[in-house]
Input
Amino acid sequence: MLVELGVGPGWHCLEIGAGGGSMSAWVASRVGPTGRVVAVDADVTDELRAVRLPRLEVERCDLRTDELPGGPFSLVYARLVLGYIGDRVVPRLTARLCRGGTLVIEDYDWYAARTSSDPLNTALASYRRLLESIGLDPRFGTRLQGILRRAGLDALGTCARTRRGDTSGPVGRLFRRTLDTAAPALLDRALITRRELRAALRAIEDPATELETPALVACWGRRWR
Ligand SMILES: C[S@@+](CC[C@H](N)C(=O)[O-])C[C@H]1O[C@@H](n2cnc3c(N)ncnc32)[C@H](O)[C@@H]1O
Output
């Protein structure tokens, strides 16, 4: 999708909440000698610091409290970040775009996730309730177009993708990591019983279980004004 949006030589790009920096590294590989990529995160991990490329700068920046790096940027990109910190930051992101610059936000719609296992589907429903109980929106990805429209961006576009797989591959790892991480909070808040959790953990080890990830919704818009 970033290729279709034209990301290429000469682009100046800002990735917020860059995590391990894989996307920033990919973008840096496309922008050529006149391009620039700035990767920021509130938590600059060793993994992110280790991404050393000629046109890539890494900075610590907490979006809730810190100034964003100076632009203007042809691309501002955020994947799986705004769902945690909310959309109030969007006007600050659009303010960093050059005229004609593109904002791309990607986030999950957890309601699209499903499996062939009833116990795992029960655990998924509990996980969505957990997100809601801590003030996060499991459907955040479905709200992105409205957020970008209200931010005054034009030429909006959107797409979504899910991945299917069994318990042995990357899709299985995503479900297992999510369940392992969430299990203590699910039990603490009585959103799942120990019995239901055990059944879900058994299903995530069963090679016959089929899985479909939450939809990763991408939405983009350009700043002309
Ligand atoms: C789920 S990870 C996504 C990482 C990366 N964007 C990706 O898609 O692989 C969320 C990232 O957002 C960062 N983050 C969370 N809150 C933040 C904030 N207030 N300011 C900047 N980064 C933040 C986290 O440190 C983490 O690296």
